[in-house]
Amino acid sequence: MTTVSDLLNAKGRTIVSILPSETLESASKLLTEKRIGAVVVRDRRGKLAGILSERDIVRAIADRGAAALGLRVEDLMTKEVKTCLPTETVKDLMRMMTLRRHRHVPVCDTAGELLGVVSIGDAVKARLDEQASEVAVLRDLNLIKA
């Protein structure tokens, strides 16, 4: 069974983050530049303070127009962030992401240190790879036909 740690080892542990005091305009540019759908918000000590997604920005613009781009990240970020442990299985992570409707989940160790971020796309790819490997093993054992 693939774990979140296995997934991070395969995809990398790069964490793109922003300060809560930055503007939505800065966050939008960062998301575009890095081609990601959410950014981790860290305080000045580097601790997880929240998460801001493309959806958060789009909702703000829909509500306030272009003036929303001047708002601070901390005004719109999700402050109570659901995280996962690196020891959790990708299957369990996908279940949680589906039930809670989260597309991005920060990975933290038991001390609360940020280790990476996993997207639903990362999790789906890991599960598909795992299933393809299982099918290959069954084919090798002649238990299923091609």
Can you give a write-up of this model?
The protein is α+β, with helices and mostly antiparallel strands. It has a single domain (4-140), classed as CBS-domain, CATH 3.10.580. The chain contains 6 helices and 5 strands, in the order αβαββαααββα. The protein has a 3-stranded mixed beta sheet. β4 (104-108) and β5 form a beta hairpin. Keywords: CBS domain. This is CBS domain-containing protein. Residues 1-69, 77-133 form the CBS domain.
Task: Please supply descriptive tags for the structure shown above.
6 helices; 45% helix; single chain; 16% strand; two-stranded antiparallel ribbon; three-stranded mixed β-sheet; alpha+beta; CBS-domain; 146 residues
CATH topology: CBS-domain
The count of domains is 1
Query: What is the number of beta strands?
Result: 5
Structural class: alpha+beta
Strand line-up across the major sheet:
1-2-3
How do the SSEs run, as a string of H and E? HEHEEHHHEEH
Cα-atom radius of gyration: 18 Å
Range of helix content: 40-55%
Please outline the major beta sheet. Answer: 3 strands, mixed
CATH C-level class is Alpha Beta
Averaged pLDDT, please? 91
Short description:
This protein is of the alpha+beta class and 146 residues long. It is 45% helix and 16% strand.
SSE map:
Blueprint: H1 4-11, E1 17-18, H2 24-34, E2 38-42, E3 48-53, H3 54-64, H4 73-76, H5 90-100, E4 104-108, E5 114-119, H6 120-140
Parallel strand pairs: 1-2
Antiparallel strand pairs: 2-3, 4-5
